[in-house]
Amino acid sequence: MSNQIADNPFALCRHFAGSYLHLGISGSVACYKAADLLRAWLKIGLDVSSTLSAGARQFISPMLIESLGAKPVYGEMFETGSDVFAHLEPGMKEGAMIIAPASANAIARLARGAASDMLSAQALAFAGPLIIAPAMNPRMWAHPATRENVQILQKRGAIIVRPDIGDTACGEEGRGRLAKLPEIFLAALRALSPQDMAGKNVLVTLGPTREFWDGVRFWSNPSTGRMGCALATCAWLRGAKVTAICGPAIEVYIPEAVKRVTVQSASEMYAEAEKIWPKADFGIFSAAVSDFAPERIKTGKASKKDFPDGTEIRFEANRDIIGSLCARKTGQKALGFAAQITPDMPSLLPLVREKLRHKNADIIAGNRVNPDSGAFGADENTMAVADRNGREEIWQAASKADIAWDLCSWLLKL
Fold first, then answer.
1. Residue 163 has what DSSP assignment?
2. Worst-scoring range by mean pLDDT, 12-26, 109-123, 245-259, 368-382?
3. Which residues are catalytic?
4. For residue range 285-307, what is the model confidence (pLDDT) as tens digits?
5. What is the C-alpha R_g of the chain?
C-alpha cells in the first residue's frame, strides 16, 4: 500500500467493511496508482468491483486489477460471454462509484451523458455518489471545454477530487496530475459515510505542545497526534467543517479540506482554540498538552559556559484549555481525553469520572500511557469512556479510526 495512504489512521478502519465501491479506471499514465487505491480499499474490507476503459487497458492489465482482489472486473460491452446487463450491475448496488484517474475524454463522455463504452454506461446508470479524480496534461485541464464539463458534472452532484499541481508525465508542470492518493482514498470513504455531522463546526486539538526553556530546547512528550487526526478526519468524513489545531511535527495525514492551524506551545494552542470556540458545535480536545511550562533561562542556546555548576529550571502551570473553554460553554459539546498511568483499565474509570466533573466536559475518553502500553504513536488503543449522563464503558483494543468513529457517534447522541 502507498505510504501516503497508510499515513492516515483510516487506512486501518474496519467501520466500512462490506460497503460497496465501483472503481472506474480511464486512460491516463496515472492508471498505475489505481492499484494502490484498490489495495487500500480492499484492506479495510470494502467490496470493490472495477472497470477499465479501452485507454486504461493500454497502460495496465485487467488481470492486475483482478489479481489484487477486485471482483468482478468488467470487460467491454458486447464481448463474447459477457453479461448483457453488466453495464447496469454496479448501479443495482448501494454504495459509491469513483473514476480514478479520470481522463479528459472520460469526463467529456460523462458530461454529455454518453454510454458508448462500459465505463460511461455504468456511470450513467449509477444513482449513488459519483466521485471523479481527474488526471491529464495541465493545458488539457485548463481548457475551457474541460472546465465546462467539470462544472456540468458538479452541478449534477458529482464529487470532484481536484488534481494537484506539479510535474506531469509529459514533462510539463502545472495543475493536472492526479490528486494525492489519501485525498482520493478518503473521498470514497466520505461518499460512503452518513453525513450526520453536516452543518456542524468542529474544533479538534491534537498532538504535543513544546515549551521552550532556551532558544532551541524544549519540554514535551511523545504524542504523534494520531488519535486527534483520526477524530478530525472522522468528523470531516461525516460532513462537518473541521478546524484542527495541531501541535508541532505532526506527520499523520489530515484531509486538505480540514483547516489546519499549527502551534508550538500550550498558550498558543489556547489562544487559537479560544478564537474558534464561540462558533463551534463540538470541541474535541485530544492534544497532549504540557501541564507545565519551564521558565526560559536564555533567549539563545544555553551552554555549560553559562551555567558551569548546572542550573535549576522553574516550571509554571499552563492554562487548562478544556477546563477554561468548558467554563464558558454556550451549547457546545466537549470531548476531552485523559492520559493516565494505571495498573489496569478498571482503575482508569474513576480517574476519567473525576476529570469529567472537574473539566465540565460532556465526554472524557481515558487511555493508559504506561511505559509498556505503546499508546503514543500506536495504531490501536484501549479506552475507558464516561459521559455527563453517567454512561461508562471500557473499550477493548481497536484502531484509532474506529475509536474516533464511535466517539463521534457518542457525541452526536448526547
1. P
2. 368-382
3. 170
4. 999 999 999 999 888 999 988 89
5. 25
What DSSP character marks residue 331?
S
Cα–Cα distance for residue pair 12/41, rounded to 1 Å: 10
Do residues 53 and 117 make contact, with C-beta atoms less than 8 angstroms apart? yes
Q: CB neighbours of 31 closer than 8 A, spacing ≥ 6? A: 25, 52, 56, 59, 60, 101
Distance CA 300, CA 370 (A): 35
Nearest to 219 by CA among 270, 251, 249, 264: 264
Other CB atoms within 10 Å distance of the CB of residue 241: 18
Q: Closest Cα partner for 252 from 331, 320, 340, 186?
A: 186
Q: Alpha-carbon distance 295 to 314, whole Å?
A: 5
Q: Please name the helix (run of DSSP H) or strand (run of DSSP E) that holds residue 201, with its range, or none.
A: strand 201-206
Cell digits for 251?
506527520
CA–CA separation, 168 vs 4, rounded Å?
19
Is-above-0.85 flag for pTM?
Answer: yes
Strand ranges inside 3-43, DSSP E:
20-25
Would you say residue 333 has pLDDT above 60? yes
d(CA 115, CA 207): 49
Residue 120 C-alpha cell reads as: 460511461
